[in-house]
Amino acid sequence: MKKTTKLTLTGLAAGIALAALSSTAQAQERWTMTTTWPDSIDLIEIDRHWVELVNKLAGDELQIEFRAGGTLMPGTEVFDATETGSIEAAGDWPGYWAGRDSAFSPLAATPSLFNAFDYLNWIQQWGGFELYQEVYGQYDMVYLPYGITNNESGFMGRTPIESLADLDGKRLRLSGRDQGRVLERLGGSQVTLSGGEIYQAVERGVVDGAEFSTPGVDYNAGFAEVVEYWATPGWHQSASVFGVMINKDAWDALSEETQEKLKIAADATLAWSLAWSERESTEGTIKFQEAGVEISTYDAEDMARIQEVTNEVIVEGACEDPMHAKVYHSMVSYLQHYANWRDVSVPYNMSRSFDNLPDLEAIEACL
């Protein structure tokens, strides 16, 4: 009898333990995530890549249900939805939120300053990651940068732009706060349109030209069907950063181990996104050329003028907002510091060698 009782109790204990394990396995977090990008824009692939990695690496602890941009809400509403916790996460381009805080602008892209390798270096080793947390943290969010593309295509349209003189009086679709200010000082006029509106705006002559993204993204958006001319390089966005906004409460509900897995997935996606984008840009450029689009390039004098105006805009914008100044101060400090190695490793360096940077002391005075 005692032996039978003992076996019965042992079996009961095993059953309880098994039930507990089963309960633990099922007690995973489930997130809803969307993005600013609809399925028709290739940039959504960066979001998908990160989600797929997270679901593989942290699948026992977290599963993310990903929805394309526009299927849950308009892309313009994803910031508020993530901040309030209506959804747990959303992919974005930080520049869309510059109206809330101008510091979002350089976190997304810079006119004629950082290239993709600069953003990678700065985010990973020169304090950039912490600044994303500081800016997004004001809105109860954690931010993981997980996408970088190199300089964008440049202006495309039905009117040739072969020099800065050709910008005079032109109405050009352009995204970005600092970018618009540079364009206006060069004689052009900024027109704000969503990505989905660009094709028809060019086709109907609503704008004289437009920029959107990299050559691969632009080609797959159909631009080769409506443009005849393409002005390079894309000085307005010498690189772009994308990432995921995560509601702070949702983030804090994760274990430290799971949080680390999300960061690992972001780092892996950063590297993947740059190679993916450069391959797609190469193939897109070939396809534009095959479609008969005429490509022109600004000369050295024009590029020097663009840099001069960019530096003025960066300093003036920094002095309008301390956080904006803090971000650009960090960026320019990085470029000066990195120059100690960068400039002695030409031509094998991974970043531009500058002879004209924004005035760091002037920015510092505005902190």
Automatic annotation (TrEMBL):
**GO terms, biological process:** transmembrane transport
Q: Name one GO cellular component term.
A: tripartite ATP-independent periplasmic transporter complex
Q: What is this protein called?
A: ABC transporter substrate-binding protein
Where, by residue number, does substrate bind? Answer: 152, 173, 211, 237
Which key words are in the record?
A: Metal-binding, Signal
Q: Where is the signal peptide?
A: 1-27
Q: Is Metal-binding found in the keyword set? A: yes
Q: Which GO terms describe its molecular function?
A: metal ion binding
Superkingdom as given in the UniProt entry:
Bacteria
Q: In its keyword annotation, does this UniProt entry include Iron-sulfur?
A: no
Which residues are recorded as binding Na(+)?
A: 212
